[in-house]
Design goal:
The strands form four sheets. Strands 1, 8, 9, 10, 11, 12, 13, 14, 15, 16 and 17 form an eleven-stranded mixed β-sheet that branches. Strands 4-5-7-6 form a four-stranded antiparallel β-sheet, with helices on one face. 29% of the residues lie in helices and 23% in strands. It is globular, with a radius of gyration of 25 Å. The chain has three domains: 119 residues, 3-Layer(aba) Sandwich (D-Maltodextrin-Binding Protein, domain 2), CATH 3.40.190; 96 residues, Dipeptide-binding Protein, domain 1, CATH 3.90.76.10; 202 residues, Roll (Dipeptide-binding Protein, domain 3). The two termini are 37 Å apart. It is α+β, with helices and mostly antiparallel strands. Helix 10 links the parallel strand 14 and strand 15. The N terminus is likely disordered.
Amino acid sequence: MTKQRFRSFASALAVGASLFAGEALAKSDITIAMQLEPPHLDPTSAAAQAIDSVVYTNIFEGLTRFMGDGSVVPGLAESWEISEDGTMYTFKLRESVTFHDGSTMDAEDVKFSLDRARAEDSANAQKALFAGIDSVEVVDPLTVKVTLSAPNGNFLFNMAWGDAVIVAPESIDDIKTNPVGTGAYTFGNWVQGDSITVNRNPNYWGDQPSLETATFKFISDPTAAFAAMMAEDVDVFDNFPAPENLPQFEADPRFQVLVGSTEGETILSTNNKKAPFDDIRVRQAMAHAIDRQAIIDGAMFGYGTPIGTHFAPHNPAYVDLTGNSAYDPKKAAQLLADVGYADGFETTLHLPPPSYARRGGEIIAAQLAEVGIKAEIINVEWAQWLESVFKGKDFGLTIVSHTEPMDIGIYARPDYYFQYDSSDFQALMELLNETTDPDERKNLLGDAQRLIATDFVNGYLFQLAKLGVAKAGVQGLWENAPTAAIDLTQISWSE
């Protein structure tokens, strides 16, 4: 080979190597594992966290949105004006926003979405978010006027929920299996029982994200989750279900472990209208029969913060009420004896698939048995839980983590699945909604926490930690979870 030909060959190799390195640096796909598969993909008609994990900000967007730090920022509304009395919000929509089918997103779609969510026959799991809306008026294609029946200091916060995303009437019939939104990613395909794929939207109104495609892989078994990560079959496991394995990932340079907080109040949810739980003394006895720290240590391997009410400890308005229901099995047994249950009673304990429920349920059942409460464990899939427990209210006890942001207001809904009906609490929430002063709101939130704690509405266990595992090169993941979301728009691969 001549010197000139060798130089040409070497140059070609260098170019090829450069291209190869460029391709490696430009990795633009990702596989993210989740433990739960969504029942469908319409966030406006179900309470399943897994729906928002896939579609929030990725496929669907609202007037406002949550960021990873919990702040609420403009979404499809670029700005808004609020009337002096706090009852009228005039939203200015972004220009040139289109749905994935090419149709324009305008004020008519906002009116349709909000009217649909608050309609009498609405299937929205958080319908109460929209109850204060008196009217929605289209001013012009890019301006919407929302009038409230009373001031609501939470209104912009409420509009950031996944239940408040903007949808189009033209695509609503197929929304559960073919979601059409305005987000940075379009729906690709869904292999039932396996995965969902989304693709980058080239016509997105905002900045183009780094990732071209993302696959959400469903792995329910904790052992399989560990194996998939160690084999590098998946790039990220959001809410990793086997906390006992985290030290192995922390010691392995191939991975990073992200430990943060969530909005997930994990509770022993109690059917307040079903005997004997309609008696506050029985609910109090059950609360004293529970050893929170034993549950955190045994089911979550120490990850989790004990709570004594339905409120996140990281919120500045949180009140520590764990002492109100301190572990005291002798007191629990005495309370049961006082109300005629010296020999205890039998009930059911429905457990959905997450590890905190299945593992925690075994521990709680054993603790309750020590004071005579025999809880029959019934393992159910997520769709069954939604149908029989959440909708059907056919349960005695269940364990679930409420991951919606600052959702103490659910206790003001008598028809909510745990069926707590307190006129005092309902009045408190009405006053809170009408209050805008930060200090007054903080005081009212404290009162609300104390009221449900002293009514022993549910067994308050712990705040769910966010335990994520990812390959070392993934960046932009949310460390905390202010809402249920895996925001693909922020994720990229480091060089």
